[in-house]
Design a protein that fits this description.
The chain has 200 residues and is of the alpha/beta class. Helices cover 29% and strands 24% of the residues. Strands 1-2-4-3-5-6-7-8 form an eight-stranded mixed β-sheet, with helices on both faces. Helix 1 packs parallel to helix 5 and helix 2 packs across helix 3.
Length: 200
């Protein structure tokens, strides 16, 4: 059962949901673009949370600043990096020995930028990194990148464009392509969960 919590990021209070576990591993899950309806209740975010919880992780999903009940204002992915860092720090403070980060769409981009700014998760997973929508130019190296997942017919995170970026991000990371899936994983959420679980 998930429990509501609050996280302090800069001077703002962010709302989140945590599902505790006895395992010393945690996962922070970041949501898609808030200006297009993205929040921590997004169905892909919820699917990721369920998959990690089933694998025994303590899961934490939260709303970026300015989203839902989180204080602050949207900052085009810049200050949101501090939100990811604050969520990761919250799990460490709760006793998690290792914390992963899994980001979906805009959340994947923000997580990647946060790694570039000094965040050091054990592993980073990006689901549908929106390479056709935002600038991944500043993302030059992602040492903790473990897995990238995208849909075969995703026009926001096109597979061919992701393939071109993978050697620059992390040559050892694995790319999973889900047949027939679009950016929203319509009818493919269970397949997404299965692919994530297979890599945990």
């Amino acid at each position: 059962m998930e429990e509501p919590i609050t996280i302090t990021s800069d001077t703002y209070t962010l709302e989140g949901l945590v599902q505790p576990s006895d395992c010393p591993h945690g996962i922070v899950i970041t949501h898609p673009h808030p200006l297009y309806g993205g929040n921590m209740y997004n169905n892909v975010v919820e699917t990721l949370a369920r998959a990690y919880a089933a694998a025994g992780y303590t899961t934490l999903r939260f709303n970026f600043r300015g989203t839902g009940g989180s204080e602050g204002h949207f900052d085009e992915g810049q200050s949101e990096q501090a939100d990811v860092m604050a969520a990761t720090a919250w799990l460490h403070a709760e006793g998690m020995e290792a914390v992963d980060v899994a980001g979906y769409s805009f959340g994947a981009w923000v997580a990647a930028l946060a790694v570039g700014a000094g965040l050091k998760p054990r592993r980073l997973i990006m689901v549908s990194p929106p390479v056709a929508f935002v600038d991944f130019g500043p993302v030059t190296s992602l040492p903790p990148l473990h897995l990238v997942i995208s849909g075969e017919v995703d026009d926001i995170a096109p597979v061919n464009a992701i393939r071109r970026e993978m050697p620059r991000w992390q040559s050892r990371a694995h790319l999973e392509i889900i047949a027939g899936a679009d950016h929203f994983y319509s009818g493919r959420l269970e397949t997404l969960a299965e692919r994530v679980t297979a890599h945990l």
